[in-house]
Amino acid sequence: MTGPGGVPAVAVRDVGFAYPDGRVALEGVDLEVQPGERVAVLGPNGAGKSTLVLHLNGIFQAQRGEVVIGGLPVVKRNLAEVRRRVGIVFQDPDDQLFMPTVHDDVAFGPSQAGHRDADLAGRVADALEAVGMADRRDAAPHHLSFGQRRRVAIATVLATEPDVLVLDEPTANLDPAARRELTEVLASLAVTLLVVTHDLPYALETCERAVVLDAGRIVADGPTADLLGDGDLLAAHRLYLPLGFDPGRARAQTSRETSASTSWCSNAST
Amino acid sequence: MTQGHPGGHGLDGLYVAGDSPVHRMAPEVKIAATVAYVFAVVATPREALWAFGGHAALLAGAVGLAGLPPALVLRRLRIEVPFLLFAAFMPFTGAGPRVDVLGLSLSEPGLWSAWNIVAKGTLGVTASIVLATTTPVADLLRGLDRLHVPRVITAIAGFMVRYLGIVAGEGRRMHVARQSRGYDPRWLWQARGIAASAGTLFVRSYERGERVYLAMLSRGYDGTMPALEGRRASASGWWPVAFPLAAWALAAAALVAA
Q1: CA of A138: which chain B residue's CA is closest?
Q2: What are phi and psi of A98, to 5 degrees?
Q3: DSSP class of residue A269?
Q4: Distances (CA, A) of A108 to A158, B198, B211, B217
Q5: How far apart are CA A192 and CA B142, in angstroms?
Q6: Over its length of 270 residues, how does chain A's per-residue pLDDT go in tens digits?
Q7: Assembly ipTM
Q8: Contact A25/A48 with Cβ under 8 angstroms?
Q9: Residue among B6, B159, B228 minimizing CB distance to A98
């Protein structure tokens, strides 16, 4: 995992960003994530969540403040290494899977990083194994179900062995079964995890800590169960729990289940 | 476009799965052999009927080796029909000496031209059908890559294969949405509706292109596409070039005889 003790995996310090049309997306975001932490970034549509994600690997450069990944500032000369350390899984798997076959797509990242032959083959096999898709390596992306494409999209990023895995709305368009499979895949990975979502129950299932982003600022930061238990806070930022959902009881239930069940897929990426 | 998963759209080309010796050949060998064979057929003088018999026998051998049902090959040959229609006019419209066939006065050079188009066209199309039916699209791209076709070309072809189905799916959904709101333009004076949809589709595809590019950058894209992995043909794997070599021998013999 990330370097020497005490260095945060992700440090976002007072980052501000406005789009060329003048629309302000981020107004001074501060966020620190320690190695191995799992953090949900919650917020309504238009809060700046996706803009923040694109700052983490230098697609957008901070106009104000700084982003530091494992002690390495996100500036032009570090971009190749930053993009290896931070793996982003985008919202639409069809945007992420652009090669003719699953195998070629998973191999894209590591082969850009210079891995070849047996080393490359091993990374691809491990990444596909980690998401339970090893048997579909030769399939074309359009032959996979949406949930399978989502898992392959995660494998494409795992293959570069990132320190930080960032998922942008991972549950969008997933049916309940695929959503469940995704939870199990994420639970089996030993990486620092950032889950950007407005799916509150999912945040509770996957992340012990959550932050709320609204209007370009972090407005709350704490244990996920506590934030979701604060109805006033949620309502103030256009976040709503599903009808009848009780975060306290759900938390107790998920922790029982995860301790009882053994993970069905091997853990490849550390 | 078969084997549709819910939500999955894409091009599968003409590939039909199988396990024949032709299916197992390396794609670069099949592509090279097909192109070489087509050139041999085109180079054969049209008067050398016996040479075309030889070409057809070679091709029938390949179809048999690939285990393709003749009905499937014939069905796919229908793509050739518009060209054959064109050829069918030539004996009537051609100049030069006339011959009487079944009471019709036909132009002799026109008949030869028609035969030329029909014979060479059918052989060429059948050879491509054998290639396309036994080779998945992804393997065709690999084969072109290994034949040193510039990678920017294979990458563009790959993106087209990957995204054409998705764009077509978006187009279908927009069409359904239009119909659902009671608008189903099908006359010339309603072209505005079609044009607006086409424009929207273009903008959406353009935006998707941007998102795909961002996803590529995020995974370390530096301007060069990686080589597509796959087993490369060994020296002995090149034996199928015997087919086009035999065709070239026929063409050469026919040229000498002429």
Answers
A1: B138
A2: -120, 0
A3: -
A4: 11, 32, 16, 11
A5: 36
A6: 444 557 999 999 999 999 999 899 999 999 999 999 999 999 988 888 989 999 999 999 999 999 999 999 999 999 999 999 999 999 999 999 999 899 999 999 999 888 888 999 999 999 999 999 999 998 989 889 999 999 999 999 999 999 999 999 999 888 999 899 899 989 888 899 999 998 999 999 999 999 999 999 999 999 999 999 998 999 999 888 888 888 877 766 766 555 444 333 444 333
A7: 0.80
A8: yes
A9: B159
Backbone phi and psi for residue A209, each to the nearest 5 degrees, phi listed first: -120, 150
**Shortest Cα–Cα distance, B160 to chain A (Å):** 10
CA angle, residues B1, B6, B10, in degrees to nearest 5: 30
B212 Cβ under 8 Å from any chain A Cβ = yes
Cα-based distances in Å from A186 to A159, A267, B257 = 15, 10, 72
Tell me whether B218 touches chain A (CB under 8 Å).
yes
What confidence score (pLDDT) does residue A266 get?
40
Q: Specify burial of residue B229 (Cβ count, 10 A radius: 0-12, 13-18, 19+).
A: middle
- Rounded to the nearest angstrom, the minimum Cα separation between A266 and chain B is 23
User: Residues of A numbered 120-139 whose beta carbons fall under 8 angstroms of chain B's beta carbons: which are they?
Assistant: 120
Q: Which residue of B has its CA nearest to A161?
A: B219
CB neighbour list of residue A104: distance below 8 Å, 6 or more residues apart: B138, B226, B228, B229
Q: Does A72 touch chain B (CB under 8 A)?
A: no
Show Cβ contacts of residue B151 under 8 Å, excluding neighbours closer than 6 positions.
B145, B224, B225, B227
pTM above 0.95, yes or no: no
Chain B contacts of A101, Cβ < 8 Å?
138
Rounded Cα–Cα distance for residues B91 and B88 (Å): 7
pLDDT tens per residue, range B88-142:
888 888 777 888 777 778 888 888 999 999 999 999 999 999 999 999 888 899 9
CA dihedral B123, B128, B134, B136 (to 10 degrees): -170
Report how far residue A229's alpha carbon sits from residue A57's, in angstroms, rounded to the nearest whole number. 32
Name B98's bridge partners: B107
Place of tokens 């080796």: B65
Is the predicted pLDDT of residue B7 greater than 50, yes or no? no
Q: Name the residue facing B215 among A90, A142, A144 (closest C-beta).
A: A90
Q: What is the arithmetic mean of pLDDT over B161-166?
A: 87
Look at residue A220 and give its three-state secondary structure.
Answer: strand
Q: Do A80 and B217 touch (CB under 8 A)?
A: no
